[in-house]
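Journal club prep — side note

Before the paper discussion, L.F. wants everyone to see what a predicted structure for a comparable chain looks like in token form. Sequence:
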Amino acid sequence: MLGLDGQKSSERKRGKVIAGLGVAEQLRRHGPQVIDHGVSFNLWAPSADFVELLEVGRPPRRMPHDNDGWYQTLSPTAHVGTRYQFRMNGNLVVPDPASCFQPEDVGKPSEVINTAALRDATLYPGRSWAEAVIYELHVGPSRRKAIMSAREIRGSGGCGEGRGVRGCRSVSGSCARQIAIQC
């Protein structure tokens, strides 16, 4: 039974902090996680009665779940390149909604990739805030209406009482429309 802190009572007694672990004792994360001894598959499907993992070329594997609706199983046979889908309630077959790779199409099996291998060895520090540029673009319903709105804003002295974009104190309402049109 889970307590208010999300831990099982037996785990709290041992003093072991495992918040975020699923029924297969793996971290609850969306999508497959490649680990040393296989792949941990996770799916959040709180309205499903049961979920099966369908690895291509393997028999279906029923996935245990917790009270929060997380289904999780550890497959020792899965590896990078394994194709898989989920079957819910015995009839609805779906690809992993959190998959990072759909090699064939969105309705076909997902493929396990090792996202950790895609990370750079050195972290990119980014730019300082003094060098940052934040660009906000609002796309209107049509070009004709946007042009008319721009004329109305300019003619009415809107957006900082006719001071233009530089006079704006906030980026909302007519100011945001004028910024989008001028850029």
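L.F.'s comment for the group: The chain has two domains: 29-115, 129-182. Keep this in mind when we get to the figures.
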